[in-house]
Amino acid sequence: MRRYAAPGAVLLAVTGIVLGVHYGVQQHAPAPSATVTPVRPVKHVRKPGSGRRYAIVQRGDTFSSMAVRMHTTVAALERLNPGVSATTLRVGEKIRVH
Questions:
Q1: Does 39 reside within a domain?
Q2: How many domains does the chain have?
């Protein structure tokens, strides 16, 4: 039994590393273009007479997902929202989109 302990521990460690790398790559890799993703409706708020459009952050939203739904770019969202951290969006927060 002892002669299998060291190889078993190495195999377990390598498996953990491979799964960790796979999960990390899967979380940060862009979705393939052939994949169809469901699109949630965006709640819009428009200030009368200003021409500005806002979106309300919903659970799971990122600047990237909002940019896709709003037909804009992440850079444009960052430019329009200088005080908003793209990594700490809060549900219910108003984000300027145009």
A1: no
A2: 2
Q: How far apart are CA 55 and CA 2, in angstroms?
A: 61
Query: Domain for residue 37, yes or no?
Result: no
Task: Report if residue 38 sits inside a domain.
Answer: no
Nearest to 45 by CA among 89, 84, 93, 90: 93
Phi, psi of 72 (to 5 degrees): -140, -170
Report if residue 67 sits inside a domain. Answer: yes
What is the tens place of the pLDDT at every residue in 13-56?
878 787 777 666 666 556 555 555 555 665 555 555 556 788 88
DSSP letter for 96, please: E
C-alpha 58/C-alpha 81 separation (Å) is 17
Whether the predicted pLDDT of 62 surpasses 80: yes
Tell me the whole-structure pTM to 2 decimals.
0.49
